[in-house]
Amino acid sequence: MSGRAILGFGACLAMCLFAFFRGKPMPLATLSAMGLGLTAVCLVVGVARAEDGREAWGGSLPASWTVGWFAVALALGGGVGGAYRTSLGVSFFPQTLGWFVVSAALIGATEEWLYRGFIQGSIRDGERLAAVAFAAAGHTAYKCLLFAGRTTGADVHLGYLAAGTFLVGLLLGLLREGSDSVWPPVAAHAAFDVMVYGALDQAPWWVWQ
Asked: d(Cα 162, Cα 18) in Å, to the nearest integer?
């Protein structure tokens, strides 16, 4: 296994550590902070060792069909977000946008830079489809660990969350491979979060707890 791949695996495991112990009482909360710190270390080392820092996290723009890739991305993110809203019995589009809309977009974008950018990119030199699946699985584990064991989110069905996150993660991973850039998945995830959370005037419970 290459050093770059080890950093990708390490970042994935560190994020799971962060998610599982986030919100726990002291001293367990220190393990969450440790996980976030280890993720940052993996990112810094990975970018520093790369010949081109942007290449370490897929930051280059798509080589071709740039407008087309972003159109696909926005349709994917917005469509899935609207479908999710419809499943909750609300309108397809949010009627208003609250102050949380910017934070929602940034949260989604950051997750894509990490999972579809750095983690998927770190192991895609081998089997690219395996890299897509691994990044999707890692993101799914992180999401589920955020909600597991928390009574505040008792209404979250972990099975549906896992299946939905993994399936969408595969689509975002394929979008990253097809465009050869993390920017279209970033746009897709940001569009999804704006659709789902953009109308909120305050952050949902899982952001802080």
From this structure: 18
